[in-house]
Fold:
Amino acid sequence: MALSLKAAVAASSQALGEPSEIVGGESATTAPRFELFHAANSICSQKVRTVLAHKRIPYVSHQMNIFTGETYLPDHVRLRMLGCGALGLPLVSGHSGSTSVAGGGCDPAVVPTLVDWETGRVLVDSRRICDMLDQVGDPAERLRPPGLDAGIDSELAVIDDLPNYQMLAGRPPGEDRRPAHRRGSNGVDFARQKVKRCDDYLARSEGDETLTLAYRAKRAKELDAAERLFSPTAMQDAYARVGAACRALDETLSARRTRWLFSDRPSMADLFWGLELIRIKNMAAASIWEDAGLHGVQAFLEQAEQLPSIRAAVLDWPGAIY
Structure:
């Protein structure tokens, strides 16, 4: 197993054609325990990078380009399939609009992908990755401390179900205020490009059972997205769900008696809400809380933007804001 994993990681790294680098390893005296395959602008990758930064955990970084299709490279797909197999969930068959693995199944052609050399595991679900990383280091610095974990998990469930994919790729209701390079995209063409990419890889992978299963699953997911997720009605529903989540967050913030949601120290819920609000703002959709007068949400966003971990992993990370 160890040799197989070593070969899979090496092949995936070599396929990228770019040198890896150690992040947060200034004080490291040995090779880092973790290797992370990720993308600058991937919200799930941002969550993992933020937790790694917050916990001050060094790692080997393999950065991938989503827009050129590097997450579809066969060697990376093979590596992820090791993680999907260990996850115990089926491969994706449709698209929920969110990034939740629990609700949609394991996607073999996305990031993040974390390799844990200490345990010999490949982890492919950002939520589970972050929960595992939270067990590393000083127990007093847990992002899900005992006694607060139920409330934190309730917020994380809301965040996990937000329609990030629809808001990224689909045309928003009303005026399209997205960045110029995203404006005009209706989501359908975006998803169908992914379907075509799967078709191309399927043609090249004939006879390879692992890759065939993977690309068929990914194709089914993106075809479902193209057919269901980007109609005007679906997009209105997506934005309404985000609006409802922001109103609920504002109410929670108004009732708190601590600096952050659950204590005077930021939790995983604070980090993830901060990242989601930054993403929504980046999609020029801050009017969701601004027009509704959700001043608590705006103040929370400004506070989260000052966190060193969020600055290091997202705001100051090249290509994370686009």
